Amino acid sequence: MTQITQQFASDNYAGICPEALAAMQEANQGYVPAYGEDIWTTRAADTFRTLFEKDCDVFFAFNGTAANALALASLCQSYNSVICSAQAHVETDECGAPEFFSNGSKLLTVPTQGGKLTPDAIRALATGRTDIHFPKPRAVTITQPTETGQIYTLAEIQAISAVCRELGLHLHMDGARFANACAALGCSPADMTWKSGVDVLCFGGTKNGMAVGEAILFFDRTLAEGFDYRCKQAGQLASKMRFLAAPWIGVLESGAWLRNGQAANAAAAHLAQQITALEGLELMFPVEANAVFLKAPPALLDGLREKGWRFYTFIGGGARFMFAWDADLAQVDTLASDIKTLHAAL
Amino acid sequence: MTQITQQFASDNYAGICPEALAAMQEANQGYVPAYGEDIWTTRAADTFRTLFEKDCDVFFAFNGTAANALALASLCQSYNSVICSAQAHVETDECGAPEFFSNGSKLLTVPTQGGKLTPDAIRALATGRTDIHFPKPRAVTITQPTETGQIYTLAEIQAISAVCRELGLHLHMDGARFANACAALGCSPADMTWKSGVDVLCFGGTKNGMAVGEAILFFDRTLAEGFDYRCKQAGQLASKMRFLAAPWIGVLESGAWLRNGQAANAAAAHLAQQITALEGLELMFPVEANAVFLKAPPALLDGLREKGWRFYTFIGGGARFMFAWDADLAQVDTLASDIKTLHAAL
Amino acid sequence: MTQITQQFASDNYAGICPEALAAMQEANQGYVPAYGEDIWTTRAADTFRTLFEKDCDVFFAFNGTAANALALASLCQSYNSVICSAQAHVETDECGAPEFFSNGSKLLTVPTQGGKLTPDAIRALATGRTDIHFPKPRAVTITQPTETGQIYTLAEIQAISAVCRELGLHLHMDGARFANACAALGCSPADMTWKSGVDVLCFGGTKNGMAVGEAILFFDRTLAEGFDYRCKQAGQLASKMRFLAAPWIGVLESGAWLRNGQAANAAAAHLAQQITALEGLELMFPVEANAVFLKAPPALLDGLREKGWRFYTFIGGGARFMFAWDADLAQVDTLASDIKTLHAAL
Amino acid sequence: MTQITQQFASDNYAGICPEALAAMQEANQGYVPAYGEDIWTTRAADTFRTLFEKDCDVFFAFNGTAANALALASLCQSYNSVICSAQAHVETDECGAPEFFSNGSKLLTVPTQGGKLTPDAIRALATGRTDIHFPKPRAVTITQPTETGQIYTLAEIQAISAVCRELGLHLHMDGARFANACAALGCSPADMTWKSGVDVLCFGGTKNGMAVGEAILFFDRTLAEGFDYRCKQAGQLASKMRFLAAPWIGVLESGAWLRNGQAANAAAAHLAQQITALEGLELMFPVEANAVFLKAPPALLDGLREKGWRFYTFIGGGARFMFAWDADLAQVDTLASDIKTLHAAL
To answer: Which residue range or ranges hold the Aromatic amino acid beta-eliminating lyase/threonine aldolase domain (chains A, B, C, D) (predicted)?
Structure first.
């Protein structure tokens, strides 16, 4: 067995980063009003508006599944549909949450490369059928980075936004790993969202180093009407909201949000660069953010498991390594070493 | 203005108690699997089973609204109904969450004294109509303590349970302030729940001194089938579940859960005893747990507000003072003093 | 046993009136496109617009429960609420359909006299609470005539509409027995609806002499956006729509719709006038439309049952007699005679 | 323009067959209780039980979309999923009705040949994933005949049923054109349903020659618990139920149900046999029931349209001709003739 002090099966395996924890502790003083009527929530929302250079509406939900589903439900009626990649998390891993929260909005899926939608695919689905038996699309959702770690360029987002606006579709961004995308592109949050035509963003806090929580930003504020009530009815309104909000202040004000993304990306690159040249192995997708998908012979994957490594293989049978904010490069080296050792033995 | 270092508008205004915070920090070591597949969640569930002396199914949700609504949805079909007090939180303060999560289960309300249902009222609603146009009741929910602080005796719970079993109704307990009830009755959690015929309990963590989180305990395990999937679809499955679960270990193993309830109750009694004799003022409900409802002339309530005190008046126009785990008796004295001063001035 | 050739337990017990049946047969020629793209549906919609003197949007649903629930769902978000009488059919006899179709819009009920809402009651509910835990009302629904046969005067409807407009609430009218109300008031359909501020009307076809079907008229056309899709998703879009639509042409063009209402009302008056003076019996509500609610000693009601009469007693234990389009006055005389006979025997 | 006295765009274009209309008229005598408590409904249900040689539970809904969606909702929880063909009507043409009625049950689709599911495809989907993020399948739905007119053999249905039973899945049959399948296979209704392992059948009345209405038969009666209430809440309980039920008596007792299916099938065969040999044209699917899908050059299809023929082309761009109970073979000849003329001209 390898000495494993850190697994890379998911970026949800990591704990709370220091900046988030410190902020939660700082907020844990005295009493504050509940349900978001407190200075921490106000300050967190303001911090988002500053970071995004936009007077957007900011909400906090408990997790990404709820955040995505609530956002999509606010963009659609039950008889509308949402266009997404066939690999989108909202389609593959939310157990029907979008359909549940919206009371029946169908997800119309597009087979994609690396999980990325294209303007043409969107146009085809949105205009292909116009009859009464087909739920008219009303929103498009893109995951940035995608579930396989691909990053839309700003131009790609803008092109998607353009076709959305042309066809009367709202554009939602699932930013469960938003920080990783910003870190990879080296662009500002504003550049990647509203300046490129995104209407609503779900910004992942949990994968970024927090205990719990996602932020939902409405750049098009008309879409946010009643959203606080929608959250409340859906069991997503925190009473001690300060503890969901303060960690955001911690990571945003300190810049830890971005450093966390950079660190995770660096770890992925660190692994990729050590194994990319190995004969017979394949990086299934370009490593653009914090994920490495390794295609290898079953014997090698079994060998890794025997050594104690945990990883999922739900995408094409390849091993997925996902790096979190606290990725330990020495452990990445250990993983790379084990891969090379097993590879040599085959 | 009074020097106010603590408000008593809600027990949600308080922060995280030391035992919960310490446990969260202790759990913040290294990596653990996500979605509840971790040692902290397992241990927390076991701790509940030990405390409740029962091999029950344990789940964690983010807040009480979701916990209650999920539990009720698991007990009913959409065309069933739930019997509750007209003052029940699920009816008055959840913005339609039960109806949302269940896809349309109606709440059938009973006007009550101090929020307590009676076997007769349940029987009347459950048997009054049997036609196809009326949603058959399938569950009864009681809040313990009630929203106005009244506590069902064990005999009362057993009587309700008896009629529920007779009529084929499941019995749910909204235990948002469960600890306060246990503290007041001096009974065991088992006594107050499954030993008295309760099928499902939502045990409030937030009001008990945690940052976030409720536990849902199914004493009748057949009712828990698929509940994990129900939580997942409803956006109530935490990825970094350890941070929802560990605080429970902290408060349960240390006994802080009960001490927190006792402290809050003591503060309420401390206030009540100082103002109960004041002429023209009225304690609207017996002070049995951690709430004091004060009926007073508008001028007195205005006076309290001018002094800086915050309180809600949504029940019969009376001022509600709700004490949390960290209630400061000196502050309670200050409030009592202000009340007496204003009273004397009138 | 009495020779009973017609029961008066419900106006749903009657069959199809000749004008509706003839129209259905006339429409049963050859082929027409499905889903409403046919000349019968177009003509029926035009006939409504002519009758109502308004360029409204017209839809057809299969029954009143669906029509009401769909209309209310189109006026609200799931986190809104609907204000209605505590005796409203949508609250008492639809098994939670409004909550089901809307994904959780609560019905906020007002105890009423004869089922009639008042502006003050609406205002109190709509402005009493404004907090995040309370589902903001977004619609008011009135039943005309009410479930106990009371008729809102035009002035009463206008007063309700005025407060609705002031408070940003949409006004829906459940017109399951619309024809009976028009017949009683002697006013035009326009007078009773949009000219008095009603936004949406569900016009009952079934109780008016048709086999199946309700019409939904949106006088405020902005509220009708997507309603065809809403109907489709909810299983309320008829494929052979001509058979739902043509009977409307039959009853509207011939005036049978109004005559049917008048006949039913006349039968109710005919009964009421024969029994109103009987000592110890009571007409529980003024007989303004086609319903008679008789309060009588249990022995008398039992006697009527023994004679073979069927009637419901769900409102205050009184016997409800509801007259349909084909009410046979001779049979009404028989019922009156039996009542008098039993009364004399007591 | 061709002299077109009958279109073949849809079997919903046809009217009511004589047996159904006569029965409706016969039922239109006097008064009967509402909501199915009448002799016609009882008799219709008994007639089904006789025809299907099974003591099944029988319900009536207004249309196929509702019938399918209600049936599937009764087989699943919201967090379950339903396995179906990617071409299934429930997936492609119900505007999200299954998701709406079930509060979020996802449809998991399988690309198929001619719309037919296979045991292997079912097994793969039902066992491929077992994690908490994936909605466990709980039901399989097959359309018989499929949307492209293919008919499952009894052996095929049994094989599907076997894998369903093995994997704990309920088997639903969408029988919108059930009569056409029975006619084609020459088997009994029992053979094609419960004797082959089908748990629930939606038997299409509308396409079979009725004005409105579908029957839902639960062969596994345990699955029907509460279904009447489910229908009521969903706006699918007819008040004058006799008019939905009596036509079934008309077509079932007379055998017209089967003759109607045979006639429609014969018309399809009549067309197919006249055009099958034409060079460059293709029957996209074997003509097994009452549908003909013709692949032809766009110029030919345009020519048919110019001649006045209506047809949909939503499946692979081919022209769909669907024959109803009253298909006029002379008109079929006319269509065939026009096709041949246009073909010769190309």
So the answer is: 7-294
Residue B325 CB contacts under 8 Å (≥ 6 apart), including other chains:
B11, B14, B17, B208, B209, B260, B261, B263, B264
CA distance B25 to B18: 10
Bond from prior residue into B145 cis (ω within 30 degrees of 0): yes
Q: What are phi and psi of A271, to 5 degrees?
A: -75, -45
Nearest to C77 among A79, A132, A226 (CB): A226
For each successive 10 residues of chain C (346 residues), what is the average pLDDT? 90 96 95 93 98 98 98 98 97 97 97 92 95 97 97 98 98 98 98 98 96 97 98 97 97 98 98 95 96 97 97 93 97 97 94
* Residues of chain A positioned with their CB less than 8 A from the CB of D234: none
C127 touches chain B (CB under 8 A): no
Q: Which of B96, B132, B314 shows the shortest C-beta gap to C135?
A: B96
Residues A307-326 have a mean pLDDT of 95
User: Which of D80, D91, D92, D99 best probes binding to A when mutated, by most A CB atoms within 10 angstroms?
Assistant: D99
Q: Residue D321: give its domain's CATH number.
A: 3.90.1150.10
Q: Are residues D70 and D86 in the same domain?
A: yes
Chain B residues closer than 8 Å to C93 by CB: 133-134
Angle between helices A298-306 and A329-345 (to 10 degrees): 130
Among all residues of chain A, which has the CA nearest to that of D135? A95
pLDDT of residue D13: 93
Same domain assignment for residues D269 and D237: no
Cβ of B93 within 8 Å of Cβ of C135? The answer is no
Number of domains in chain C: 2
Same domain, B185 and B305: no
Question: What is the mean pLDDT of the segment spanning A165-185?
Answer: 98
ipTM for the assembly: 0.96
Residue among D203, D199, D212 at smallest CA distance from D169: D199
* Domain span at A317: 257-344
Residues A183 and A129 in one domain: yes
C-alpha to C-alpha distance for C179 and C290, rounded to whole angstroms: 10
Residue A199 has a pLDDT of: 98
User: Do B240 and A34 lie within an 8 Å CB cutoff?
Assistant: no
Residues C188 and C322 placed together within one structural domain of the fold? no
What is the interface size between A and C, counted as CB pairs within 8 Å? 48
D236 contacts on C by Cβ (under 8 Å):
62-63, 66, 235
Residue D1 within any structural domain of the chain: no
Residue B7 maps to a domain: no
pLDDT value of position D1: 75
**Structural domain contains residue C7:** no
Task: Look at strands B291-295 and A200-204 and give their pairing.
Answer: unpaired
Contact B145, B175 (CB under 8 A): no
Chain B residues in contact with D79 (beta carbon < 8 A): 226, 229-230, 232-233
- Mutate which of C100, C132, C227 to disrupt the A interface (most A C-beta within 10 Å)? C132
Confidence at residue D335, expressed as pLDDT on a 0 to 100 scale = 97
Residue D55 in this model has a pLDDT that exceeds 80: yes
Note whether A151 and A184 are same-domain residues: yes
